[in-house]
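pasting for ref
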Amino acid sequence: MVNVVFGIYSIIFIALLIGAGFIAKKWVSDSNDYIVAGREISYPINTLGVVAIGFAGTSITLAPGFSILYGVKAGILWGCIYSIFGLLLYANLFSNFIRRSGAITLPEYFEIRYDGTVRGLVAITSVIGMCGILANNIVSLSSIISGYTGWPVYAITAVAFLVILIFATMSGMWATTITDFIQVSIGTIAVPVFLIILMIKYGGFDFFDTWLGGDWVNKGLAGASLPGLSFKYPSILTFMILFGTALVWGNNYYWIKIASCRNESVAKKSYTVGSIYLILIFMIPLSFIGIYAGTAMPEVFTLAGGTVAHTAAYGVIARVVTPLLSSLFIVGAAAASLSTASTAAMGANSTATRDIYQRLINKNASPQTTLKVSKVIMALIIIVTWIMTFFPGGPTYLFAFANAWLTPPAVLLLLGAFWPRFNSRGAFWGVLAGMVTMVILTITELTQVFNIGNWTHMAIVGFLVSLIVGVIATLTAPPKYYGSSDWDIKANKNNRKDVKLDELDLKVLAMINVGHQYLADISDGLNVDSKVSHSIIEKLDQGGYIERAGLRGSKFFTFSITEKGKEVLPSLNEIEAKMAEDYLNTKYVNFLDMALNRPDEIGLFAKNHNMSSLQMSSMISHLNRRGYIKEKGMFRRKVEVTDKGKQVLQKYASLVKAN
């Protein structure tokens, strides 16, 4: 009966996922649509996407597991640290920075800030790390389902990979966003209802009076409490470093979740609300589900002499519920794992496509060719990840293996964003030393030659090695021009050099002149890799034609034109000059007219002007920022002209009529 009900639910769920891929397939016209959904992701959809990443197989095992191991406070603390120190802090530190940088992937940013060698190294290793996380989720998923149904793990694994391959290959990030919606919808019902059923069946807090550890809030079944500042995992300190810095800050798929948003405000708000939603709807209920499992059937867990690991608490307690509901709860767990696995697959795919294929293999590939190759790369990633599921040691070592590749990039992100002096030499040796150290520690722990876990988690060692080596190496070489102590962001005749401008330089300068103030606007508007656009920015900056708003955080990617810059631009007629003062040009005015009077033809605007999805994003983001339009639509973007937009249309009515 259990397997029949679960099988029916699974078929329905798989059909929904594949259907999502078919629906979103028509939304993908080029590789940028495939990787970052044309930067069209809305506030509600990205909020659900953030929740979906957090509500993963890892959460379903660790939140209840830590409750059994150390008491409910430990389970809740783990969930809060991941959600707040990882997601919420990441968003508030880096949302503006990431979205304004224009870099679609984290390694792409590293070339902007450091050089191509660092980008190439991190790209290759990041793909390996994200494949490790993908494999970890699939192995966790297979274990949960196998424990519930008795089905063979290899068969469940094969089906899981096949499903991801089908729907993610069809439509990439768009498919992932829809599956996030489905997954969170199921989970939002399943997890709280699961907890309510347990409360009805067993009662409230009084039921926990029989807790073997005596204090169910602060102690586990065996009486252990969660350490605070210990460097040995698990502890509050190691949670902050491992599940905040290592897992989130150095991970490309958290980066592309921000890069795909319509603007930086959408990114910050969605991560902030998503982290709070995650705590209230998932982390706290999951932690209490663990307490119910430990109180109702302590004898089954190894901590009390049984044979079941504490991380299996969710599946164990699900058995006491009627199959009609328990199967739904397990499908909810499967949905969590599959959704996060597909996001990890997209993170690996985006890096492999943009940072390896387009940059190292086929630099002249068209967007259509790149889109086809992206789908082939997705298949290769699935195959490689399937092989990684045979990694000895199971999910625990897979997770450690993945973090070996993701912790050092987190150091590069942090230092690059806030320390202008940090240079390419520091970045290269820091990340290389950290990765090599962690790979060695993974191998020695796996072979039992040396177990670093007896003292601390290897991610902490990797973080410290990357930080120390990176800082020391930085001090042995000069920084880029903006990192020099004598560099002044304010330009004058005496602190800039003579620079000869070409046609592309002048095109960028003209974009800044009409108010395109972020690097993202310029990269997307030119439809180029951010390394190209930023090299132009550096040239204009050193020549005194533009100024940065600052050297740290998002101000580094925020620019304004100087009087010297305006002087070298081609002469504008009277109307063009007025439009520039209003942050407009002829094309933008025509777009506003179409958006107001012929909104159904907006798709034709892109076609008539030969604009890619990112070029449209550059224009729409700019007009939205200047208050001329509002962006609407949950999935696909729709625009609405504001009163301010209508006023400028009246101002340039003759121009519109002429066109």
